[in-house]
Amino acid sequence: MEARLEAVKRDTFGKNEARRLRAKGTIPAVLYGGATVDGKPQATPIAVDPKALMDILRGESGVNTLIGLAVGGEEVKVLMREYQVDPLTRRLLHADFYRIAMDKMLVVKVPVTVKGEAKGIKQQGGLLDIVHREIEVECLPSNIPEHIEVDVTELMLGQAIRLRDVATSPTWTPVTDADVMLVHIVAPRTAVEPAAAEAAAAPAAAEPEVIKKGKPEKAEEEK
Question: I need a labelling partner for 114 at 20 to 30 A (CA). Which of 9, 53, 146, 168 fits?
Answer without folding.
Answer: 53
